[in-house]
Please model this.
Amino acid sequence: MAGLVVSSLSLSHFRSHRVLRLNFDGRPVAISGTNGAGKTNILEAVSLLSPGRGLRGAPGEEFIRRPEELGWKIAADIAGPGGLHRIETWAEPGGARQVRLDEKASTQVALGQVMRVLWLVPAMDRLWLEGAEGRRKFLDRMALSFFPDHAEAALAYEKAMRQRNRLFRDEVRDPHWYGALEARMAGTGAILDANRNAVLARLAMAQAGAVSAFPRGDLSLTHPEAWAGDLAAALAANRRRDMAAGRALIGPHRADLEAIYADKGVPVALCSTGEQKALLISLILANARALAAETGFAPVLLLDEVAAHLDAGRRAALYDEICALGAQALMTGTDASLFDSLDGRAQTLIVATEGGQSRVEQ
Model:
């Protein structure tokens, strides 16, 4: 199976990297170095070749390299099912993020048609223990990998919901204003729910058909307060309660992702930390397999410090599955020995700090 490939990556004044130029051959990339050297910054730059704020969810101002505080820029060449593409994204201090695709001004949404990226970072380790918002974001990132217009639907839904909440704060009583916004929430909300459920179906199929060293999770989409029939009618009926609360109490924005550890039949939140991490890896791999089956190309995987949580056997199994998938996976670790079982199947980078900036040996 072929994979989507970032063949070159250039950074300018991005985080700890003043200037960086890397070339890749499509194999997995093992990136080692001490904490704070700038390993994750490379993964974050690749994540910004897709729509959104990247793997750390940071605002653009945080990407600026200090102390220079100049504009930052990322440029990359991509090879995939649509052929060769050039992506550039940048921002000046205080300015909005700009995107150029194949030498033409473009939008972040358009990047989703070219670049499919999945990631797993240490901040996600508590996904099953914290609030529903993080799990919704996790599910929506997976949905975005299949449906590039998912982000537009989510933004439109959030905008209509915020406007409706503002009417509550302003004590507006005209039902026509509410009706128009509730219809918009219902339309975009239906897209969100449909995409989310479609992703869960794809993941279930990808897990069922795989031979993997990682556990299977049975996933479901739940709502704390379900509604019957059309969401617009339910929002209208719930208007008085929502006005008292100052916000919408029903809708896709309150959905949660529930997971059962299939081998044990218990909620993942009750499993050990190691089991929870293994399931997260399993879901990322299932997402990648499902995308590869649908598009013919495996997505790019960004796995930050993932090897540190696995024993030697699980590390070897993860690398074997990545290589079998044909995915270009960029992986970080503090010790190069964590990648020994790749045994020549990967490119290696060593990141160090020198004179206050990151330096990469390729």
